[in-house]
Specification:
about 190 residues, 2 domains, prenyltransferase activity, metal-binding, transferase, magnesium
Length: about 190
Amino acid sequence: MPATQTVFGLAQTINSASYNITRALDNVAKLGSLDCIKIALAELKNLHAGQSMDLYWTCNLVCPQIEMHLKSLDDKTGGLFRLLFRLMEVLSPSERRPNLLSLTILLVEQSIVLRNILSQRRVNGKSSPEHMRLILQLMERSGSLNYTIAALRKLQTEIDMEVKAFEIESGTQNSLLREMLCVLYV
């Protein structure tokens, strides 16, 4: 599937995305809560800040430290999930709230890292499967692939701890979530 801007052009893509952001904010405003509007604006700022960090690194050929990269992922990918969970919390009549936010963001980060590093698909339409295999071989030789796998396993441990805490707090075993995690884990 080609990127939207390659089909419709950059100007139309940016305009359509901006229009849909304003539609989303209209829907948040219909919730009738100033807190909801503040949450939506804060997470939109986080999303754009995370994307701007990624664009800076790409345009300036900068390789960020892992902590900065994970922060960028938190902001640009986690922002939408944080928006959803924060809105649900504000509008929920229940006082009991397991910490699903951290779990969701960890899952998303792990999935993105796995897909970006281990997939054989084209990157920006430029890398062939052969090129990706060569990159993976070089990463393995340099030790960075082992480092990445270790970082992913650390995330998996954090996810397992969140699931256990969620199950204890809710008083329910979540076998479906655990099955999904087994599919994602390296």
